[in-house]
Amino acid sequence: MRYLPLSDADRRHMLGAIGVNGVDDLFCDVPVEARLDAPVDLPHHQGEIAVEQAFRQFALKNLSPGCAPSFIGGGLYRHHVPAAVDHLIQRGEFLTAYTPYQPEIAQGTLQYLFEFQTQVAMLTGMEVANASMYDGATACAEAVLMAVRLGKSRRRAIVSGGVHPHYRDTALTYGRFAGLEVVASPPAWPGDEDLAAGIDAGTACVVVQNPDVFGRVRDYTPLAEACHRAGALLVVVVCEAVSLGLIKPPGEMGADIVVGEGQSLGISTGFGGPTVGLFATHGRFVRQMPGRLAGETVDADGRRGFVLTLSTREQHIRREKATSNICTNSGLCALAFTIHLTMLGEAGLRRLAEINHANAVALAERLETLPGVDPVQGAFFNEFTVRLPRAAEPVVDALAARGILAGVPASRLYPDEIEMQPLLILAATELNSEADMDRLVDGLRGAL
Amino acid sequence: MSASAQTYTGKSFTGQTHSGHRGLQLEEPLIFEQGSPERSAVDLPHPPACADRLGGLRRREPIGLPGLSEPEVVRHYTRLSQKNYCIDSGLYPLGSCTMKHNPRLNEKVARMPGLGDLHPLQPVSTVQGALEVIHTCAHWLKTLTGMPGVAMSPGAGAHGELVGLMTIRAALEHRGDRRTKVLVPESAHGTNPATAHACGYRVEAIPADERGRVDLEALRGKLDRDVAAIMVTNPNTCGLFETDIREIAAATHEVGAFFYCDGANFNAIVGRVRPADLGIDCMHINLHKTFSTPHGGGGPGSGPVVLSAELAPFAPLPYVLSDGERYRLIEHAADDEAAHPLGRIKGFHGQFGMFTRALAYMLAMGADGLRQASADAVLNANYVMARLKDVLHPAFPGPCMHEVVFDDSTLKDTGVTTLDLAKALIDEGFHPMTVYFPLVVHGAMLIEPTETESKDTLDLFIETMRALLTRARAGDAEAFHEAPRLSPRRRLDETAAARKPVLRWQPPAVDKAAE
Amino acid sequence: MANLRFTREHEWIRIDGDVGTVGITDYAQQQLGDVVFVELPEIGKAVKAGGEAAVVESVKAASEVYSPASGEVVEVNEVLQDEPAKVNGDAMGGGWFFRIRIADAGELDKLMEQGAYKDYVAGLS
Q1: Does A297 reach chain C within 8 Å, measured CB to CB?
Q2: Cα angle value C48/C80/C3 (rounded, 5°)
Q3: Residue B248 and residue B219: Cα distance in Å, rounded?
């Protein structure tokens, strides 16, 4: 077994040093009835050839977006990741390092986390960001918990109908177990919601998403003001990080907590995970912010260095009183995000965002020529929703059978809303060529 | 290898260079201190002209991000990486972390086209192979643990704990049983009480006996019908198998409570003991510990939770069902009438990239290899204990499992603390062991070698520890207080970092006079 | 001479009329290590004897500070927000946390006087 260095001679020698006859003697504390005499009923060990073969078989049963025009967004976005990113994150010193609890020998990790935190704060327009969360949905739920902690006796959170249903549902679950009242608004389609009307003295926060799950972009400045007048916080969710390269960031709209998904930068859609949650807020709220934080300091020689800090908020010290039970951040995914963003730089990110928007506009214009398809309403970034003249899911399935991934039927996210069955949510990124769009439009024309 | 007689002068090593670099130890500034806004390491075409549909919400102000070319980016991150210790470079004897080798085959299969690039919202008919991966990984976890159900979606171990307790609370609420307490051993990892609290429970401590295990009689005294669950780590955080675990389970079930098992230490028993046979109701598994997925400098992890028949119906959404021919992805409660899922706890379908990696490891090791791995893990830890116990005091008698905990009694009156010893180990080229955990052992040193370390590595570690302890007892405390001296940074001022937190780079203040 | 009493949780209270000044003892600050942050109660807050009133954080630990007596918070030591180190340097004086208007002077009789506290601490090591 190639991952086990001990030889039988080693084992014999070590057993002798310990003073037992066999390794079973070391399991003497296990109740006899619970000891297995033989390996469990699973396959025997295999070499690399066999393991690779097995995975190739798994892969062959899937339609890869690399082989098909793909317009699927819905919270995770297909972008090009520069080759250097994947090479760098696979360096053993990043891949196989532990959490930087011994900072003297973890300055690599700590410095990139400090840089990541700075980049996320800049992108979101907020003062401070943490070293990442598991994903956008859990970050959103944690933001609600944080708003409640800050709101003293307020225990109500209003979730906009434009928030991704996965995020909404995660917040609902967390809220249920924490004894909070999380109010989920009906899907915000086709019109706008009046969230301000629902804020009362018991409301800790209102949660909105920009661009929302239907792709629409809005200015939440008036809502932020309404929240603050009523003593509540505004939480803004961002699922498409690239949008922050082109659109006014939540921090400039008056958001108090910004959470989101960083997958668009550095990370493949990967069938949904792992990804990286973003979390940013005001400096004055930092002690209530969950998750890890890298901070700057100096060492005994007076040289600048970085450490994990404000740890007393975390579970391993506060225990019951912790701000959350979180142990891990999404380290390597945060690294991929920060490397990709560093490679893009200010100019590159802006240009990437412009291309995404231009491609989405081109796609919208093509789709709007299809009979029975209404023009796309309102502002959008790289994703929008169209109403087809029939149910969208069978259309998407038919096109998938022909090797085209035509977007997300709204019914996939909202199975109970009959009126939403004709809605199709489509995203266009820098990876969608005009040829892709032509194939999609031709396919739709045939299917409608 | 002999310890060359280096005398510590108490002064820091002052090899000043012009560049600030020291041989292969290269200094590296922040990205914000380099580059310029117009540079980029990515060549993109000019965006096609279009009448924008941004609704007047175009971002006006500069973001402030630095721009670097590709060579500069590669150099920046390469230099940062060279300041990190990692499993690839040496032993990490971190108790409770299971720092075993991260096989590179895992990385290769995770990135295969058709696996690494799938979108979770593709039509289910186009991702049958991905669902098969999840289903197969789940099957291995259920078989190895003997449990009938598993929730695959939690994003990390602590997340799995939360899900475990949520399923317990959901099950209790379903049968109309309102309970308010969770019992947690004093030796437990801090996530356990934090998790219980996040689930709306208050926590009461279960004392340990002098053998480092849960005091069964004390537990019996605390079990009543207001207890929702006990949370017990097995093997426990002292590296010991809870000998009374079946009695603990029975007593818990007698009052209608559930047994949550923290599976962080599953590496000690994988393939040799099935937790189901011990009477547990649910257990989270850290794929990044027992199943070799990489630690990545702090994540991502994956924390599937195996569940009993009574708890399985409450598992969160989504999950995979197989009818033998096709795989279904259950994303909404209405799609599976047999279950009462407690809802979503995360976006999308779970840490798929970690399932592929873990499954690659499972297929590579096989049932026989996993059984050998736990044997070697336990052997290695006991070997370390046997060869150090005359100079370091094991906190508990008898054999340990995959990790051994020592207290700091042999350092008494030396002026050298557990922390000082840990910092001295850094200069010796080893990552320190876990220190000051579990809390029930004074000055605890928790050492878990794992099975992927050779005997030569263990011998060097043991001899180094012995040499350090000899020096500590010889009165050389000053040298320990100065440690580490050879690492990329010396001891860092954590007090200053916490008093005046600097959590991001800030641009230098604009010179108003220049405007 | 100010009346000085101690709790088993290592808080002290210095009584002056019906106002008590509360802080943590030198032993407590030593145990905690360098104090990095202090969370003080709001003025006007009602506290109970033995109830949580403040939080003191060091790099390695965070501890509740319990009020030795019941009453209402009338003043807090704002200096600690910028200089938490005062708790380490002058725990018994300038490192005070908050002042309360004592509701029931009888509660103070249950607390240790200086000599008794000294013996108590000696017994802990």
Answers
A1: no
A2: 50
A3: 8
- Separation of alpha carbons B14 and A34, rounded Å: 59
With 60 as the cut, is the pLDDT of residue C101 above it?
yes
**Whether C62 contacts chain A with CB within 8 A:** yes
Model confidence at A286: pLDDT above 70: yes
From B50, B122, B411, select the one nearest A357 (Cα to Cα): B50
pTM: predicted TM-score of the whole model, two decimal places: 0.95
Neighbours of A287 (CB within 10 A): 16
- ipTM of this complex > 0.85? yes
Distance CA B150, CA B34 (A): 48
Based on the number of CB atoms within 10 Å of its own CB, is C61 exposed (0-12), middle (13-18) or buried (19 or more)?
Answer: middle
pLDDT at A28 over 80: yes
User: What Cα–Cα distance (Å) separates residue A93 from each residue in A83, A98, B81, B295?
Assistant: 18, 9, 5, 11
Neighbouring-strand partners of residue B407? B393
Provide the token pair at B324.
């033998």
pLDDT band at B1 (very low <50, low <70, confident <90, very high): very low
Residue A327 has pLDDT above 50, yes or no: yes
* d(C-alpha A11, C-alpha B22), whole Å: 42
With CB atoms and an 8 Å threshold, state whether B495 touches C57. no
In chain A the first and final C-alpha atoms are separated, in Å, by: 56
Percentage of chain A surpassing pLDDT 90? 92
Structure confidence at residue A300 (pLDDT): 96
Number of domains into which chain C is organized? 1
In a domain, C117, yes or no: no
Q: State yes or no: pLDDT of A359 exceeds 60.
A: yes
pLDDT of residue B443: 95
**Spatial distance between the Cα atoms of B85 and B125, rounded to a whole number of angstroms:** 44
User: Which residue on chain C is closest to A310 by alpha carbon?
Assistant: C59
Q: Is the pLDDT of residue B193 over 90?
A: no
Q: What is the mean pLDDT of chain A?
A: 95
Kindly state the tokens that stand for C121.
């601490």
Name the residue with tokens 């954080």.
Answer: C57
pLDDT higher than 80, residue B511: no
Compute the distance between CA of residue A281 and CA of residue A233 in angstroms, rounded to an integer: 11
Residues of B in contact with A354 (CB under 8 A): 47
C94 is in which domain, residue-wise? 4-107
The yes-or-no verdict on residue A316 having pLDDT over 60 is: no
At A292, the pLDDT band (50, 70, 90 cuts) reads: very high
C33 domain-assigned:
yes
Q: What CATH number is associated with residue C28? A: 2.40.50.100
Q: How many residues does chain B have?
A: 515
3-state secondary structure B114-152: CCCCCCCCCCHHHEHHHHHHHHHHHHHHHHHHCCCEEEC
Give yes or no for a contact between B27 and B21, defined as CB atoms under 8 angstroms apart.
yes
pLDDT reading at A216 higher than 70: yes
Lowest mean pLDDT, pick from A51-55, A225-229, A312-316, A374-378:
A312-316
Chain A residues in contact with B278 by the CB 8 A cut-off are 31, 34
Residue B52 tokens, joined: 């924008």
Amino acid at A381: F
> What is the 3-state secondary structure of B317-369?
ECEEEECCCCEEEECCHHHCCCCCCCCECCCCCCCHHHHHHHHHHHHHHHHHH
Q: What is the mean pLDDT of residues A314-330?
A: 60
> Which tokens sit at B46?
């000019």
- From C97's Cα to the closest Cα of chain A, the distance in A is 19
Q: Is residue C75 part of a domain?
A: yes
Residue C62 is assigned to a structural domain of this protein: yes
How far is CA C70 from its chain centroid? Answer: 13
> Any idea which residue has 């990804």 for tokens?
A275
Taking the Cβ of residue B4 and every Cβ of chain C, the question of whether any pair is shorter than 8 Å is answered with no
Q: What's the gap in Å between the CA of A321 and the closest CA on chain C?
A: 9
Q: Whole-angstrom distance between the N-terminal and C-terminal Cα of chain B?
A: 64
At C88, the amino acid letter reads: N
pLDDT on residue B10:
62
